[in-house]
Every structure is written in structure tokens, then in C-alpha cells.
From TrEMBL:
Gene3D superfamilies: DD-peptidase/beta-lactamase superfamily. It comes from Bacillus wiedmannii. Residues 2-63 form the Penicillin-binding protein transpeptidase domain. This is Penicillin-binding protein. Pfam families: Transpeptidase. Transmembrane segments: none annotated. GO terms for molecular function: penicillin binding.
Length: 89
């Protein structure tokens, strides 16, 4: 729940935010996915089913990055630091 809570606290997402749970692919990496595809899910359902994809999408929103299939990720260090800060709370 730390990723979702961080999303709330940074205003990257709000309660009831939906993401589509399907495999994600970033340039130079293996496919990222949940243990099964859940389709369109909100924060509560994502926590219930342990959706990896929901957490990936939340982290991207915290970093201000939009997901584009097969694209490179260019995330500034400040966003990793922000995640670490909130995870320590």
C-alpha cells in the first residue's frame, strides 16, 4: 500500500483512480505485469489483488511520466528520492 499512499500524498492519484491492468513493456526490459490481467481497476481493487501494473502506473504518475509502450524511461533522481522519502514515513 506504500505506493498507493505515496500517490495520494503527492497528489499523483486520488482515491478511486483507475488504471488498466495489462502487461507493460519498456525499452530494454522484460514485460512487466501482474500475476493475471485485471482490466480496469481502482486503487482498492489493486490492493486487494496485489496489482503490480497499478503500482507501476502510480509510480509513473508520481514521476510525471506517461506510459508509452516500448519507450525508454527517463526518470529524474528527485522522483526516486521522493518515493524513498514517503516510503520511510
Amino acid at each position: 500500500g506504500a505506493t498507493v499512499l505515496t500517490g495520494f500524498e503527492t497528489k499523483a492519484i486520488t482515491p478511486g483512480t483507475y488504471f488498466y491492468d495489462a502487461p507493460m513493456k519498456f525499452k530494454g526490459t522484460k514485460e512487466k505485469k501482474s500475476w493475471k490481467e485485471f482490466g480496469n481497476i481502482d486503487d482498492l481493487r489493486a490492493l486487494q489483488v496485489s496489482s503490480n501494473v497499478y503500482m507501476f502506473n502510480t509510480a509513473l504518475k508520481i514521476a510525471g511520466v506517461d506510459y508509452v509502450k516500448n519507450s525508454s524511461l527517463n526518470i529524474k533522481q528527485e522522483y526516486f528520492d521522493k518515493m524513498r522519502y514517503y516510503f520511510r514515513q
